[in-house]
From TrEMBL, chains A, B, C:
Gene Ontology BP term (one): ammonium homeostasis
Cellular component annotations (GO), alphabetically ordered: plasma membrane
Organism of this sequence: Salmo trutta
Gene name of the record: RHAG
Lineage of origin: Eukaryota, Metazoa, Chordata, Craniata, Vertebrata
Annotated protein name in UniProt: Ammonium transporter Rh type A
Keywords attached to this entry: Ammonia transport, Cell membrane, Glycoprotein, Membrane, Transmembrane, Transmembrane helix, Transport
Reactions this protein catalyses: CO2(out) = CO2(in); methylamine(out) = methylamine(in); NH4(+)(in) = NH4(+)(out)
Classification via Gene3D superfamilies: Ammonium transporter AmtB like domains (1.10.3430.10)
């Protein structure tokens, strides 16, 4: 029957998204030299918890005969809501306890559910690859939390807040899996058929163009034309984020490539110039630079969506697209601020400054 | 034609199971600091050999016109039979020569084939995710072999019988791939349709619940509430094992979650308290703790299957389910004991005690 | 509609090939102790660039209404053309600048397109898994480039031209993903149905047999019967290369196994005995030994194809198969020589001898 075909047709993108969540995000964060256990381990914990909480939250919005029903489609959506938490996790990586992170998960997924309902059902905005409701939302939520948890003592960087050779290679496992499967992420809930095909190809082209600009800019801004591994691990993915909203729109290969190319530039420049300023001037210590990978490219994606709808590339209203972007940012900043305040309460076991970015506070580590 | 559709429909779960066998099991065992080459390398050798031997064994049970015919379905089954060998490999990891392991492969797959035929064809028992015929069988077979190969000199643990920071991260690659694709393992041979859908969702819920209990118990039993990487690498997967027999039964999300939750507890407690006792009191030196990941959760899965069939969640007979569990354990213990005795013969190149857990006895290693 | 079904049916092999290109090739080359960033990083850069260039080149050969049209089928083909570049990259790994490699990419994909058109359209030869047009072509192209870029100062091996323990484990990630997904590579463009099924099973059997012979020969030729990680990382894959041309032919499981078995032997012996001779006597310094993994097994595949067509295992002409092999080798050697001469021009930033095999010349590396 139809339900079964559906299961099968959704099977592959479901797994691809699953791989992005657990391997992609998990290993991307292993770049820190002494925080690999927490990166991949807490990623697993938070994601496994978030999947369940996400299914419950969705179920409450869509009760059937008073019951929560489960479907493959809802499981993909639960993976999606999990992604927001993992993006925010990147902003506070190394500076929070597991209990704080579980609290963040509960609150963030709840607020995500409200904003998603508003954007998709009330505003009727397009956001198939979720540039706005996942990437921008997750990034600014995490940045607001990071602002609330500001640690003055970490202004002069911490000795463990950096990578070693092999930790950077572990992180590349995450990068490459994210890069490869991003077309599935952006097409997973696209309408089957031409729309889904476009979502795959647009994302593919955006990512390919983004790699080129990320490498070029990294080489341009670094000393002696060298490449910086942080840029390669992250900015090469910004094209996937930025093309998300437009992924199933008829923007053409060149449209997609322009979006990706610009995203790679913005993201790399952000890592080089903006992240240090945010830390020193605004008190926002963004461990993984999620502002550069998810925040700015997410906004770029939202704006591209406004323009594309205005140009008639998809049914919809440019005003509603704009409202969706504003709503996502607003919920993220307000929600993140409140969540950060709650996380700051003194009884959640937040690690002291000197134990930040160090697995040995939460794990049995043999040195 | 139907055969081709079949190829395609089975394509994805086939590959997922393949990834579990070669990446999952292979990297899960790389946690030992000086035994990574053997873990992933011998895993590849044994699996490639076992696939072929498994196809021949299956073929002999199901001759068509006197010929062995190959199909995608039989290739999945060959991957399954391979899994039993890799589970047993975990029990004797670091203490056996490649030749000993090849002998174990030949014997174990042969005995597996007999037990599988008995359970599936004669007893007609349900075991879609193979809690009994793969996990419990493979674990107790391996433990029986380990008992036969007992090394008194290793009672006080060997200096190489432990992990280092990056070897634990390599192992997490295995853990996460196993965790992600376990729903495919448990659903690969389920009846297409609702049964397969249930096998996917039940496994997904069981695994998600299992992660939570494994983390909770690990933190409870460890010093200062810390987490132990061994528990996270292994016990988070016990939910996949334990829900195997019931995976395609109508046990509901909560039924699946309870099974996974209990499995996570049992498995973590087993690593903490039971493995040392087995080693010191019974002479069973279980390198990877397969008793905790596959043995006890496999029995739990068998018992859950008996209960579920008794409650009418699936056609079948509770008595036959019980007989299937007993048969699997019996064949494993007797078969493993005999196999262990054969492996103990003095001309298979078993490594001396001081070279255990050390790649350099079988590999050219540059230190 | 048909196009959409097509999208879906091609989805899984597409992604499998994608994983081989980005994870498989990328991590396979991380075996060098100080060249991991470049291996996986430049692999990503070259592949992302090559995909786009490959689509343009294909598009020019197959203009539709004066336009380049994109399809999933063409995207697979672009991945395929990318593979040739990554094979050649292996031959010159550690001795070329990113700019040199981009020039090689542009030229090699262009020449690949000409040869592929000749082989497939003009000669009408069979080469479904591309033993000739990708593997042999890419290898001999790279070897010709390496000959042109010969560095006498590296005759006595460079201190960084070797592996360390964990770099070899990273490389095994590449090996295992390549091994697992090779059946998809060889079947991706096979005719849907029985042909595709045969391409999957033949590749599976060839690879399984190849593992056994590679391990056996490695142990036979090494000191004290030890295994060499270089052989295991590479020669275990030669069966996938060698069965490529015949993959969709009715050669039977034993035919496939014989091809794989022989490929494993040739490849391992090549690493042990031939590579040193090529370097010392012919001035061909083949960093990854692509001659052993892709070159000789590719020729073996071409010859097996000639024999199989002569035996009537597939429609076609043995003479045309022979011409296809000769064409692939000819274009590779001539094209590679010209490309190597262009790459030798003094303004592409080729690294000096003492900085070969060292990430720190192109990457910000914290030691």
């Amino acid at each position: 029957p139809a339900a079964v075909d559906n299961l099968f047709k959704l099977h592959t993108p479901t797994y691809d998204v699953h791989v992005m969540i657990f391997i992609g995000f998990g290993f991307l964060m292993t770049f820190l030299k002494r925080y690999g256990f927490s990166s991949v381990g807490l990623n697993l914990l938070l994601a496994a918890f978030a999947l369940q909480w996400g299914l419950i939250m969705q179920g409450l919005w869509h009760l059937e005969d008073g019951k929560i029903k489960v479907s493959i489609f809802k499981m993909i959506n639960a993976d999606f809501s999990t992604a927001t938490v993992l993006i925010s996790f990147g902003a506070v990586l190394g500076k929070t306890s597991p209990v704080q992170l579980l609290i963040m998960t509960i609150l963030e997924i709840t607020i995500f559910g409200i904003n998603e309902h508003l954007v998709a059902e009330i505003l009727g905005a397009n956001d198939v690859g979720a540039s706005m409701i996942i990437h921008a939302f997750g990034a600014y939520f995490g940045l607001a939390v990071a602002r609330m948890l500001y640690r003055p003592a970490l202004r002069n960087s911490h000795e463990n807040d950096g990578s070693v050779y092999h930790s950077d290679l572990f992180a590349m496992i995450g990068t490459v899996f994210l890069w490869m499967f991003w077309p599935s992420f952006n097409s997973a809930i696209a309408e089957s058929g031409t729309d889904q095909l476009m979502a795959v190809t647009n994302t593919y082209f955006s990512l390919a163009a983004c790699v080129l600009s990320a490498y070029a800019v990294s080489s341009l801004v670094e000393h002696k034309g060298k490449l910086d591994m942080v840029h390669i691990q992250n900015a090469t993915l910004a094209g996937g984020v930025a093309v998300g909203t437009c992924a199933d729109m008829d923007i053409g290969p060149f449209g997609a490539m322009i979006i990706g190319f610009v995203a790679g530039i913005i993201s790399t420049l952000g890592f080089k110039f903006l992240t240090p300023i945010l830390a020193s001037n605004l008190g926002i210590q963004d461990t993984c630079g999620v502002h550069n990978l998810h925040g700015m490219p997410g906004i770029l994606g939202g704006i591209a969506g406004i323009v594309a709808v205005a140009l008639g590339k998809k049914n919809g209203s440019a005003a509603m697209q704009g409202a969706a972007l504003a709503s996502s940012l607003g919920f993220a900043l307000v929600g993140g601020t409140i969540t950060g305040l709650i996380m700051k309460l003194p009884f959640w076991g937040q690690p002291p400054d000197q134990n930040c970015f160090d697995d040995s506070i939460y794990w049995e580590v043999i040195i």
